[in-house]
Malonate decarboxylase acyl carrier protein
Amino acid sequence: MEHITLSFPASRSLNGKALAGVVGSGDMEVLYTADAAKTLTVDITTSVDNSTARWTALFDRLNMQNGLPSGQLIIHDFGATPGVARIRIEQVFEEVEHA
């Protein structure tokens, strides 16, 4: 297991909390909590070693397309594909945005 902490400048703010996925499902769980900071802090626990570059690229892409909200994102990854990871992350942002 590898633990990765990333930080990105936030370009928007949201309010609330959201959860997408389930650890027991075998792929990943994402928990998001909004805050008033100007950054998005991402804490990732993953079963895939040496994946920092993959996660950084994923968040860079999300930032270019929609901007990242401020807050705390906790990810428990158990080998999810990059596509599933992106879906789960977008789900928590969308859930909070439309709550």
Observations:
- The mean pLDDT is 92.
- Residues 16 and 96 are 6 Å apart (CA to CA).
